[in-house]
From TrEMBL:
<dbReference type="InterPro" id="IPR036390">
    <property type="entry name" value="WH_DNA-bd_sf"/>
</dbReference>
<comment type="similarity">
    <text>In the C-terminal section; belongs to the class-I pyridoxal-phosphate-dependent aminotransferase family.</text>
</comment>
<dbReference type="InterPro" id="IPR036388">
    <property type="entry name" value="WH-like_DNA-bd_sf"/>
</dbReference>
<dbReference type="InterPro" id="IPR015421">
    <property type="entry name" value="PyrdxlP-dep_Trfase_major"/>
</dbReference>
<dbReference type="Pfam" id="PF00392">
    <property type="entry name" value="GntR"/>
</dbReference>
<keyword id="KW-0238">DNA-binding</keyword>
<keyword id="KW-0808">Transferase</keyword>
<protein>
    <submittedName>
        <fullName>PLP-dependent aminotransferase family protein</fullName>
    </submittedName>
</protein>
<dbReference type="InterPro" id="IPR015424">
    <property type="entry name" value="PyrdxlP-dep_Trfase"/>
</dbReference>
<feature type="domain" description="HTH gntR-type">
    <location>
        <begin position="6"/>
        <end position="74"/>
    </location>
</feature>
<keyword id="KW-0663">Pyridoxal phosphate</keyword>
<dbReference type="Pfam" id="PF00155">
    <property type="entry name" value="Aminotran_1_2"/>
</dbReference>
<dbReference type="InterPro" id="IPR015422">
    <property type="entry name" value="PyrdxlP-dep_Trfase_small"/>
</dbReference>
<dbReference type="InterPro" id="IPR000524">
    <property type="entry name" value="Tscrpt_reg_HTH_GntR"/>
</dbReference>
<keyword id="KW-0804">Transcription</keyword>
<keyword id="KW-0032">Aminotransferase</keyword>
<keyword id="KW-0805">Transcription regulation</keyword>
Amino acid sequence: MNKQRKYLFEEVYEYLWQRIERSDWKTGDKLPSIRELSMEMNVHRLTVYKAYQMLKQQGKVFVKDKSGYYVQGSSTSPIDGHSLLRANEKTYTLSEIHQQSVQYQFSQALIDPNLLPNHFLSDYVKKVFDLYPKVLSTYSTVQGDMELRDTLATYFITRYKTHLSHDDILITSGSQQALHLISQLFIKPRDTVLLERPSYSAAIDIFKSQDAHLIAIDIQPYGYDLEKVEMLMKQYKPRLFYVNPTFHNPTGYTVPTAQRKKLVELAERYNCVIVEDDAYHDIYFEKAPPPPLYTFDTAGVVIYVRSFCKYVSPGLRVAACVVPPAMKDGLLTVKGLADNGSPLLNQKIFLHYFSSPRLQQHLEKLRIALQIRKEIMEEELQKTNWSWISPDGGLNLWVQLPDPLPTDQLLQKAIENSVSFVPGLICDPLQQGFSSSLRLSYSYANEEQLRVGVRRLIEVVNTYA
């Protein structure tokens, strides 16, 4: 049975209920009329009526004769057995997992601060204040510091042999802000967004917050089933396809060059914008990954989001978006509304470290250190009957436990033993699979913590089983 398909009235119901839950409409507020909502969502009036009736039956809205539908107060909402059960369950969002104080931190895809160039960065901070004594007295432009955009354009041209100028680049406060801005610009309620399955949980949440209709395509060690991608594009006409093709989060898979070219061709054919999220491109262990998808784009269908925070300084929150000309003005507008430009000081500090020979030396040492940590984690996991595919880069292992071991429930036991991880369910756009999968990040804990923490996690799993 294909659980991905829903009746149209159920999608309208979900749209209404999500907006009520996030207080777009508060208790006692009048809801849009059936006619208004059917026109807004381009559906039949009977479809909206069925959605409203479903909300009414559940005590979430009430009807005033000849006046319409209104939001029901929580005090008059019926209590059922399922809600009582949910009240006693402990579930976690990704941000809540990250906030747990544990000794063995395997949930955060961050690099151990001891592996980052903290001493060198402090030198560059002093240098920036010498070179730009008024850096704290002015704003950056909305698009980002011109000097930084020039430097990044030269870097991309040299690295990937692409035609690019500073005018094609937008600086954002990290890749997550970039995704949020893109979703605000492109996604209206019930627009279809295609995502990989599993996928980056923060991206899932961002697109859900725009009331997008999410359609998932499995990502495998070899990449995608491109025939299925084409079928989904043809059938659903997605507004966006969000991809993370290089050391994919959470699986670590890398999509091969031939598929990258074909995917760009499909996006052009079916008028679908590809949003390419590339946070780990430089964190490879043996050989560099294939060029980004945007390098194969000749029609302006790919927005390339490149983050440098992970391996330079997470605190600077600097990411670069390579944006097709037709989309630039719209993104500048939403960026201006968000913060009027990322902090200039952060951009200048990043610029001078990024331009230095020290960065390449740092990267070479960092790759070795991270590969060692990955191998330590894998060495400990080899004592189990768990399965995973060893990635060629990135910060994570995507591990499958023997069925049936629900990792979302296992997480609470692990946290009680001071170990954290990311349950697979959080990474599922459909929220219905990967119950026995978990993401383990090997980049934050030191070598001793990795050994002790993985052993402790294994004990928790064995006890739970």
